[in-house]
Amino acid sequence: MSSNERVEQPIKFAYWVPNVSGGLVISKIPQRTSWDLDYNIKLAQIAERAGFEYALSQIRFTAGYGADNQHEPVSFSQALLAATERLKLIAALLPGPWNPAVAAKQIATISHLSNARVAVNIVSGWFRGEFAAIGEPWLDHDERYRRSEEFIRALRGIWTEESFTFRGDFYRFNNYSLKPKPLAPLPEIFQGGSSRAARDMASRVSDWYFTNGNSVDGIKKQVDDIQAKAAANRHSVKIGVNAFSIARKTEKEAQEVLAEILKHADPEAVKGFHHEVQNAGNASPEREGNWAKSTFEDLVQYNDGFKTNLIGTPQQIAERILALKQVGVNLILLGFLHFQEEVEHFGKHVIPLVRELEAAKKPVRAYA
Ligand SMILES: Cc1cc2nc3c(=O)[nH]c(=O)nc-3n(C[C@H](O)[C@H](O)[C@H](O)COP(=O)(O)O)c2cc1C
């Protein structure tokens, strides 16, 4: 895909499935969000009507940091697919606990059950305590990515080849024939992570690169790096960025909500989370991946979503989304405080402004 085509396509929207309790912030602020099935079914139905194309369900094996209960993402995604018509569900898979033979089989079946609306997000692990709790060996940062890359190559091979043979350091397959294959189009393969190893993997094998929230400049640096390498590898990859959105009538009102979230932050939980995420980007050889530079305030949102600054009036938010699009972003992944009502509001008040700005094809000003 050329850089022009990347910018011409309408930007896509996804939301984080709140399949964990406590919502998407480590704060005791009251939230009208629930992790249960009924709430999530209604949310998914609202989201597909509101113009969201994807929903991402996350994986964590152990509770903590405000997320005390969490549903498993593949089975939870299947339940949401059964209750929707157009929404695509991206289910997180964590190599280590998941093995590619099981994952490929499971996702192929869900592709048939959902008319090809399932996708996967390959995550590489940041939570050492979680691996210890379930008796999984913990690999060094870049080794985790080597395993993830083999996992992705194995998934794709199983899904596309009649007789799949693979000799990796982590996985082996011998003339394996999966039947049925997933329906076309094949499940898209997303990945989460921002370190050099993550970017290199994206430039070789992933369909989508998902990164934490960041400034437009911070995102641009990642996009330029990935797309230059992807071009050299003749690989096509799209970019998704996390953001926590607070859209209100005035910027002041939106900033007040952010201030309330931060005021009610749970300091012990944020510090514990900070301690654990040091196993991610900061543990990479170049020490610059996710969370390597996050402040206390940034970490109140699990994936640095405040940094993207989609906080303000619908017009301000739409302009900021366009600025991200202009540096090569294809999808915005959104978290909200009160999911059902804010997803609906976003669809009604922000997405139409984004579409107007896209149609106008004028450059929007960069923002701080
Ligand atoms: C959008 C997004 C979603 C993620 N979802 C999960 C998840 O569900 N479970 C998980 O253990 N890690 C998840 N991660 C974490 C990544 O897989 C990775 O371990 C982390 O971002 C650190 O990567 P880095 O060291 O390459 O920067 C997610 C990351 C991003 C950006």
Quick structural overview:
The protein has 368 residues and is an alpha/beta fold. It is 43% helix and 14% strand.
Question: How are the strands of the largest sheet arranged?
Answer: 1-2-3-4-7-8-9-12
CATH class: Alpha Beta
User: In terms of per-residue confidence, which ranges show pLDDT below 50 for 5 or more consecutive residues?
Assistant: none
**Major sheet, described briefly?**
8 strands, parallel, barrel
Radius of gyration (Å): 19 Å
Secondary structural class: alpha/beta
Number of strands: 12
CATH superfamily: Luciferase-like domain
Query: Any idea of the CATH topology?
Result: TIM Barrel
- Ligand types: flavin mononucleotide
What shape does the CA trace take? globular
What's the CATH architecture?
Alpha-Beta Barrel
Helix content: 40-55%
The succession of helices and strands, N to C, reads HEHEHEHEHHEEEHEHEEHHHEHEH
Number of helices: 13
Number of domains: 1
pLDDT average, as an integer? 95
How far apart are the termini?
29 Å
Please report which band the strand proportion falls in: under 5%, 5-15%, 15-25%, 25-35%, 35-45% or over 45%: 5-15%
Pfam families: Bac_luciferase (PF00296)
GO biological process, one term: alkanesulfonate catabolic process
Organism: Hypericibacter adhaerens
Keywords: Flavoprotein, FMN, Monooxygenase, Oxidoreductase
